[in-house]
Peptide/nickel transport system ATP-binding protein
Amino acid sequence: MAGSGVAHMRPESDPVLSVDQMVVEFPVGRGQKVHAVSGMNIDLLPGETLGILGESGCGKSSAGRAIMQEPSPTSGTVRLLDHELTGLKIKPLRKARSRMQMIMQDPVSSLNPRRRVRDLVAEGLAIWGYDGDDMDASIRETLTAVGLDPDAVWDRRPHELSGGQCQRVCIARALMMNPDVLICDEPVSALDVSVQAQILNLLERTKEKYDLSMIFIAHDVSVVKNISDRVMVLYLGKTCEVLPSQGMQTRALHPYTRTLIASIPGGEQAFSSDDPVAGDLVEEKPRSAATTELPSPLNPPSGCRFRTRCPLATEQCAAEEPQLREVGQGHFIACHNVATGIV
Ligand SMILES: Nc1ncnc2c1ncn2[C@@H]1O[C@H](COP(=O)(O)OP(=O)(O)OP(=O)(O)O)[C@@H](O)[C@H]1O
Ligand SMILES: [Mg+2]
């Protein structure tokens, strides 16, 4: 999907998290609404990391928040382990949802500025009324696990920490809840490059140690491909392509995914210049999606939503929404032109 479909779902598997036909819309007055996410389907298996990739405004954070039910999606279902979350009232929802934690895009503003590190890390458990004798010991252990010295940061408030330290506190807070699923919404985009690498390493180590399944949201191809097992590429609320992260730079087929890859330094070298898609993208960069505006999510294009920026668009793309279809092992794409053999 910059079309629709469920071809990428794995019905024989037992996912920790399944998202079915999730739609997120925001009414904005005069009968208009923002179509932020339009029919998303996800099955996240135990221990798996799914990367969600797309440019700014394509609906990544809206999807992450809707999975967390903050707020609930407009329609569709979200199932976490044995619980269908979308129909739950606030108390049972809080309980069921505690197994899933989200790390937000901006680490500093996601922490209450008046609270100290000790309380910030304990907050989730405190909401449940838990403040056992072993609480301080677990906070210390978790702070140490995320690379913070408990004695040094214990009484500090967020403004007394660096951005990287704040993100470590956010990760510690999430881990205190012993989650099965961690949703990371651009957890490193607000940090400088050297700290980004430290936090990404920390997330990978943490995932192994705590046996987590992870959704990792980012707009940066190089970050997503390194940390993920599979990558879902999102365009204007629709899924364009789902593919294994390994080798994705050369394997990607959807013109939008190729545009994203071609726009990173050295990315255009992933495709040869006689490749019909990449050739267009590389030679006609000024016309390519990387340099033009995303269409309005109030009134998305008919058919394939990517067609207005796609070098391969035909009349069929305006008339018909492409369905996801399998084009290789674990590789799915929603594009009429790939389907008709142009690529
Ligand atoms: N509460 C809201 N009310 C109205 N529109 C919203 C709301 N939240 C998000 N949107 C719109 O929904 C669309 C998707 O936004 P979202 O924040 O999910 O994008 P994103 O992919 O996370 O972008 P970024 O990479 O910049 O974080 C955008 O057009 C945004 O303006
Ligand atoms: Mg976002």
